[in-house]
Amino acid sequence: MMTDKMAAAFNEQINKEFFSEYYYMAMSAYCESIDLPGFASWLMAQAQEERLHAQRFYQFLLDRDARPLFAAIDAPPAEYDSILDVFEKVLEHEQFVTKSITDLYKLAVEEADYPSQIELQWYITEQVEEEKTAKEIIQQLRWVGDKSTALFMLDQKMAERGAPAAAPAAE
């Protein structure tokens, strides 16, 4: 059984994961509006992945006899300065999520909640990958600069990302 304090923290994280989905959908819509459908597709896949993360947290709460509770989701920004600005915001957001998950892990340690520690290790590994990917895209966008042909090619490459596989369930 999970403590009330731990369950509340997991519920907060569910809200952050759903906000992340909403945020990436808004970024995807922005990319569509500036004729970058490949980036839009990549961000929509990212949004879907965030929903899967929220669902995994949801199921983990249920598996631990805790009740998932939902809070309002804030509206994400709709406008950005450039595609580079979008991905700088992606990195900032992923760093925010990383901190949130590591704070959740610290709480699990304080609460001696070993099942939560094990579950959160998957998310910690996932966050390393998320930050790395965002940094790589930012670097590619910096290399591209204002070269429209290169941006077109990068947009084509971004479209190659498929829909995310379901986040593996906690075992």
For the structure shown, list the relevant keywords.
171 residues, mainly alpha, 0% strand, elongated
Sheet of most strands: none
Q: Flag low-confidence runs.
A: none
Mean pLDDT: 94
Fraction in helix: over 70%
State the helix count. Answer: 5
Number of strands: 0
Molecular shape: elongated
Which sequence of SSEs, written as H and E, runs from N to C? HHHHH
Alpha carbon gap, first and last residue: 16 Å
CATH topology, what is it called? Ferritin
What is the strand content? under 5%
CATH superfamily: Ferritin, core subunit, four-helix bundle
Please tell me the total number of domains. 1
Q: Please write the CATH class name.
A: Mainly Alpha
Q: Would you identify the CATH architecture?
A: Up-down Bundle
CA radius of gyration is: 17 Å
Structural class designation: mainly alpha
